[in-house]
Structures are given as structure tokens and as C-alpha cells.
Amino acid sequence: MQQARLLTGVDLNEGELHPLGLGLASVYTARCPDVHGPNQDSCAIFQNSETSGVLIVADGAGGMPSGDKASYIAVHALIKSLKAAAKHDESLRTAILDGIENAHASIVALGIGAGTTIAIAEIAGNKVRTYHVGDSQIMVIGQKGKIKLFTKSHSPIGYAVEAGMMGEKEAIMHEERHLVSNLLGQHGMHIEIGPTIELASKDTLIIASDGLFDNLHSDEIAEACRKGQLLATISTLSEICHRRMNSPKEGEPSKPDDLTFISYRQRASA
């Protein structure tokens, strides 16, 4: 039953749709506009069983060497760990944590100072649990646009927002928003594990690199996710992000970057 769709160092012209657990997942990834180097984001959709699966997004650190290699290592280490877990009757939680630690050790062993974020959503039936390192983030959005979950960015700006010292609209325009304080491959790496939450029938789960969150406010993401089917949502989000990256306007966020995101809904509403 186990199946994996891995996307590393590639660009999609449009979103893809894949079955996952009790629902459907759509994925989009593309390199930063006007950049000739590789897409440093990697992602995967892992179907574990008829009722469970895992979504993964990794964003190689652009200011460090071989970001694309670091994100590739991270996603492949996670998939390898998830596949091995079934053979040893281990839980998805154990497999995910082992995969993150193995990826971290492998990136450190490169000895070149590479780093990557990782964001993971473990889906079991109608429940989801999140794991993340860095500023790739995860949201759960209700049918009416209510944000039920939004993981925090592991960055000075992210911590300032969490502490109430800075508003989201100020943070998204801040010149130091790109600084990240927690990465696989870097000293002091730590994994943040979120609570298990139940997905309602029309909730949308979205997991993304900062290419999404640096170009759209959270309420704009929520508004796009509450309308239409998954592929239409993917199209809307990618179009707005690329427009803002390519044609910045006063007062709107604009940060050219690689862009990767996966969205998920239970099948009845997908």
C-alpha cells in the first residue's frame, strides 16, 4: 500500500493531485523567478495505508552552500524511515522523529555548513499532528476561513510575533524576516511537535515553504483555501505569489523565493 511521490529540484507548471489516506493532497513546487540555479525546495506525499499518510516540505537554506542537497537529503531520509517503520511495526511518529534525526546527522556529516527546514504533517484518519524545524510552516483552515492551527516560524521575527511584540503585517514586511534560527544541519537543531487535532470534513491543511508565507498574509491564504477544489486553490495561491514576486507593489509583501506547498482535504470535500 505504501507509495511515495517525491519532488526534489524540479519545477511544476501546475499542481498535481494525489490520493492520501481518507482524502486528497495537491502539490506545487517551482524555483524562484529569474534564478537559473536549482529549486532548493523538496517535498513528498507519502501514502502509508488506506487511512494514513505523511506530507513533507523542506526548504534548503539559500544563504548556505548546497541548500538543494540538504533538502533532498531531508526528504529522502524521511521516506526511507517511513518505509522501514512498516517492516518493524513502528509508529509513524517514531519513524518521523528518527527520519528527522537521521537527516540532520547526514547533513552535518557533509561538513560544508548546509542546512534546511523541514515541515511534516502526519495524517491518521481524520487527525493530524505536525512536526517542524525552521520557517516552513503548517496551517489548518476551516470551511469559513477560520485559522485553526498555524505553526510558528523558528526565527527572531517569528518569535517576536508569537510573543505579541510584533504584528503579522509588520513581520511580513520586516527586512530580517529571512533570518532562521533553527535548521537541520545546524548546531542546536530542535524539533517542534504540535498537538494532535481533528480535521473537520471541509478543513484544509496546508504545508509550505516560506515562499508562500513571505508573499501572502495568513488571512489571504485562508480566503483562498476556503473556496473551490484543491487544484483551484493551488492555482490561486501560486498565481498570487508569482505576481507579487515578479511585480511588487507598495504595501504588498514581495520576496522572490522558491515556492512549494501541499494542501490536503478529506475526500468528501476535495
Structure description:
This protein is α+β, with helices and mostly antiparallel strands. The protein has one domain (3-269): Phosphatase 2c, domain 1, CATH 3.60.40.10. It is 30% helix and 27% strand. The strands form two sheets. Strands 1, 4, 5, 6, 7, 10 and 11 form a seven-stranded antiparallel β-sheet that branches. The protein has a six-stranded antiparallel β-sheet with strand order 2-3-13-12-8-9. Strand 6 and strand 7 form a beta hairpin. Helix 1 packs antiparallel against helix 2 (92-110). The longest helix is centred in the N-terminal third of the chain and has 21 residues, at 67-87. The model has no long low-confidence stretch (mean pLDDT 93).
Query: What percentage of residues falls in helices of 4 or more residues?
Result: 25-40%
Cα end-to-end separation: 21 Å
- Rg from Cα: 17 Å
Q: What is the mean pLDDT?
A: 93
Number of domains: 1
- As residue ranges, the low-confidence spans are none
Q: Determine the CATH topology.
A: Phosphatase 2c, domain 1
The major beta sheet can be summarized as:
7 strands, antiparallel
| Assigned CATH class | Alpha Beta
What is the helix/strand order? Answer: EEEEEHHEEEEHHEEEHHHE
Assess the beta-strand content as a share of residues.
25-35%
For the record, what is the CATH homologous superfamily label?
Answer: PPM-type phosphatase domain
What would you say the CATH architecture is? 4-Layer Sandwich
Number of helices: 7
Number of distinct beta strands: 13
Shape, please?
globular
The helix/strand class is: alpha+beta
